[in-house]
Hints:
The chain has 275 residues and is α/β, with parallel strands linked by helices.
Amino acid sequence: MSVETQAADQGDPSASPLKHFGSEVKLERERLGWSQSKLGKAANCGYSLVAKIESGERVPGLEFAQTCDRVFPHSNGRFERLWPLALRYAFPPWFRRYVELEWTATVVRMFHPQLLPGLVQTEHYARAVLRTGRPTNLEDLVTARIERQRILTREKPARLWLVLNESVLRNTVGDDQVMRAQLTHLRNIAETPMHRVQIIRDNGRHHGYASPFGLLSFSEGSDVVHVDGFPKGYVLAEQDDVTSAQDAYDLLKAMAAPPDESAELIDSISKDCYS
């Protein structure tokens, strides 16, 4: 259950876009005479997930929305259009504005000193990271994090430039199996021509940047900065802040190993630490 629906009237389909999405699914399923099990089979999920989506307790994935449009007559893409509104309710209110900006970005630049960012996490890595906070809506958070990654695979994908401390690859999240799969995924991104992954090797000296941050660029308009933090991150759009972040990112790129060395280093760490 999302933050927004916890305090809402659970019987009111207008309480949130998430509740509205679920009530529309239930309405169309019953109109078609289908059981929750039959819809679950069509959507490659269990009937219990269908039930939770219909009651507004779980955030649907895009494939579920597309299945609804395929099997419900005369939906005309309605569920896929409703899906982004339902998805945003899995994010904390303070993070939603960033997600909206990220979705329209053409270039995403990120620096992370301790963990891989959500945009490149595998599902198992994401679940292990998010579980440490003991959230009540873990599966919603995992779904939302993985769905964000569609900006890298859509018809006109965003370009990603990622700078990581070497320790990010050595910090075990989950277990060895989770880390092997995660590093394989990161290696594939590093080898994708339009993306860049650079790793700052651990030479025993701190480079001075401890906070994760990123820059979003757009086809129109100025860059914005996102600073990750606890308990909340924040977005900065003032030109002085953007310029400072751009300068910091340029320095970090200069400190890092060249992008064409990333795959070899990822393979080496995977073999040494997780084989």
